[in-house]
Amino acid sequence: MNSDLAWKHLRGMTPLSLCDWPGRPCCVVFLGGCNLRCPTCHNASLAWDMESQPLLPQARLRSFLASRARWLSGVTVSGGEPTTVPGIGMILHEIAASGLPVKLDTNGMLPEVAEALLAEGLVEVFSVDVKGPPALYPELSGGAVSELDARRNLSRIFALAENRPGAFNFRTTLVPRLSQTDLETVRGMLPAGFTLATQDYQPPRRPHALADTEARRTAGNLVQ
Ligand code: SF4
After folding, report:
1. Using CA positions, which residue lies closest to atom 6 of ligand 1?
2. 158 to each of 42, 130, 168, 222, how far by Cα in Å?
3. Do 128 and 177 meet the contact criterion of CB atoms below 8 Å apart?
4. Is 38 in the pocket of ligand 1 (CB under 6 A)?
5. d(CA 137, CA 143)
6. Tens place of pLDDT per residue across the chain (224 aa)
7. Using a 6 Å cutoff on CB, does residue 81 contact ligand 1?
8. Is residue 201 a contact partner of residue 175, using CB atoms and an 8 Å limit?
9. Among 30, 31, 107, 145, which residue has the most ligand 1 atoms within 8 Å of its CB, making it the best to mutate?
10. Most buried residue, 38, 115, 137, 168, by most Cβ within 10 Å?
11. What's the CA-to-centroid distance between 14 and ligand 1, angstroms?
12. How remote is the CA of residue 140 from the centroid of ligand 1, in Å?
């Protein structure tokens, strides 16, 4: 694997967040690229046109972690969709060298990657964004995921969560298309013992919203 390829996806960082990983002061690392085309995406430029976003050099991340790791309790890796990054393990190994654990935000549609990262011990917690009931995935994902694939991928993620309950949490963004019934459907799919967090939907500020690492979402608005 060409390590340069992975590092080309490193497109931003928030040095300190008190709400992306509840209970843990963390930095947030943003990786460009995504396998979905959600019409409600708040980070569309980062997700679909990462070249439009400034590259964060590997050396900058390394020096940041070396100097700030003792003030942090973890690193949130977000996107875009981090599991689409070829060779993401290289970036996660770099973070692991700082001694900080990783929470990884994912849409869950590449469960085989999540499974591999979990097995390698490179991610402590996956925060899985369940878009809605499987039947709505074609619409919610901009045509990127069929209902059948959504069912398969979510089933695989839920099976992983059953085996490692401490390594997963699930949330749904309250996009206008979702009804209370839809949320109940999602809740009913989760493995026993899991609750669904919801987060308010923030409309893109313009049709092709710029990546906004400050206001991309108010992560503190998680509601159990
Ligand atoms: S999965 Fe997330 S980053 Fe990807 S298109 Fe959907 S909202 Fe945007």
Report:
1. 38
2. 26, 11, 9, 21
3. no
4. yes
5. 8
6. 666 899 999 999 999 999 999 999 999 999 999 999 999 998 999 999 999 999 999 999 999 999 999 999 999 999 999 999 999 999 999 999 999 999 999 999 999 999 999 999 999 999 999 999 999 999 999 999 999 999 999 999 999 999 999 999 999 999 999 999 999 999 999 999 999 999 999 877 544 433 444 444 433 333 33
7. yes
8. yes
9. 107
10. 137
11. 19
12. 10
CATH of residue 111's domain is: 3.20.20.70
Residue 72 φ/ψ region, left for φ over 0, alpha for ψ in the -120 to 50 degree band, beta for the rest? beta
* Residues paired with residue 27 on neighbouring β-strands, in sequence order: 75
Query: What is the domain range of residue 142?
Result: 3-221
Q: What is the distance between the alpha carbons of residues 52 and 43, in angstroms, rounded to a whole number?
A: 12
- DSSP-based three-state secondary structure for 170: strand
Alpha-carbon gap, residue 160 to 117, rounded angstroms: 12
Rounded to whole angstroms, the Cα distance separating 142 from 185 reads 20
- For the chain, the first-to-last Cα distance in angstroms comes to 40
Provide the number of structural domains found in the chain: 1
For residue 124, what are the contacts with CB-CB under 8 A and spacing of at least 6?
74, 101, 102, 103, 167
Ligand 1 centroid distance, CA of 13 (Å): 18
The identity of residue 178, as a single letter, is: L
- For atom 8 of ligand 1, the residue with the nearest CA is 41
Question: Which DSSP state fits 18?
Answer: S
Indicate whether residue 43 lines ligand 1 (CB < 6 A): yes
